[in-house]
Amino acid sequence: MSFYDNRYYYINKTFLSLIGQWPFQSRLEGNVMLATTLFFICSLTAFELLSLIEGITNPSVFMQNTSQLLMDSLIFAKLVNSIYNKYKMKDLLEHIEQTWKTTQIGPENEILRSHAEQSRTLTIQYAFIIYFMGLFYSTMPLVVKRIHSLLPTNGTYETRFLYNLEHILDVDKYFNLLMLHGIISIFLLLSVGIATDSMFILCIQHVSALFEIVRYNLKCIRDSDIVMLKPDIADDEAYHIIIRCIKSYKRALNYSELLSSTYAVCNFFLIGNVIISLSISATEATMVKNQLDELIQMIAANTGQLTHIFALSLISQRLIDRSSRLHEAVYSCNWYEISLRSRQLLRFTLMRTLKPCEIKVGKIHVMSLANFSAILQVSMSYFTMLSSLQ
């Protein structure tokens, strides 16, 4: 049985295998799943693009299809990033497995288990919200059509689809087939986002656990009975603890740098895409009149977008907070009771821990809750500008 078949990582393995991006699955299985995912995503995008081109003079068609195309392009960017950085992701996962093998017992293992359990819980909650919003979005035409068929009314209901396709196809004639294709495509679109984002959450939680292990070991210096200023190096227990902490801290920093570089370009595209998409979607909502199904679809799509960017910002903020706590641990230990050589090491360690570990986007933007608020403010500014142009 694979290491990743355990309770903590099996869900991540399942999501990545579904889209053919699990680094350890067979090449045949991975290529088949990836080809299936690409077929449905690309065909859905082609329909939306064709609809946009044909109805570009209609503001409603333009706004709706542009918003959907932006979301599709974001998911496609995540998939391309996953394919391009597959070997980096494999290195990230192998580092996790190696860490677990070297810390199988003791308090350090409990820290790993605690953070892995948090990662599992966050992944389940995130997947549930995204899939739930996707269910609302994709099944709304079916629900509304069924309601209208049951209502005792003489009026006729014009069948609405997931996106404006009425001006290029007979939606009534191919409604069931188009809905089946749309639901499968949206499911795979959401699965790509959940799989790649849950991988990001998993790695963030792991590097946070590494920082917590370093913090725990630094606190062990308090229990040392060494009070000699210049003891023999072989008997200097605090010195050896600090050396181990520095090595562990360096490994955690290298891991976070690898993680940041893996998602740097994708997250840079994510920020710009989300700002534009939210602005257009909010503007589109103001143009909807007496169309409850379309309004519910917009709410579901925007809620999914906000949940997506908020989850990534929240987990990145946790990494900043966990790495910042190392500074407090170094500062609060009983440094005045250890040897001079140990104090010297602590001094350089304290200087490095003043700078928190961050996930940067294109070496410009830092993923955090503060910048999440900035994204919302910019989106509202663009929304205000687009609304004034109506």
From TrEMBL:
TM segments? 32-53, 123-144, 174-195, 258-283, 295-315
| Endpoints of the signal sequence | none
Q: List, alphabetically, the Pfam families matched.
A: 7tm_6
Which GO MF terms does the UniProt record name? odorant binding; olfactory receptor activity
Where does it sit, as one GO cellular component term?
plasma membrane
User: Alphabetically, which GO biological process terms does the record hold?
Assistant: signal transduction
Bilayer topology annotation: Multi-pass membrane protein
- Mainly resides where? membrane
Q: Which UniProt keywords are present, listed alphabetically?
A: Cell membrane, Membrane, Olfaction, Receptor, Sensory transduction, Transducer, Transmembrane, Transmembrane helix
Task: Give its localization.
Answer: Cell membrane
Which portions of this protein are annotated as coiled-coil regions?
none
Family from the record: Belongs to the insect chemoreceptor superfamily. Heteromeric odorant receptor channel (TC 1.A.69) family.
- The molecule here is called Odorant receptor
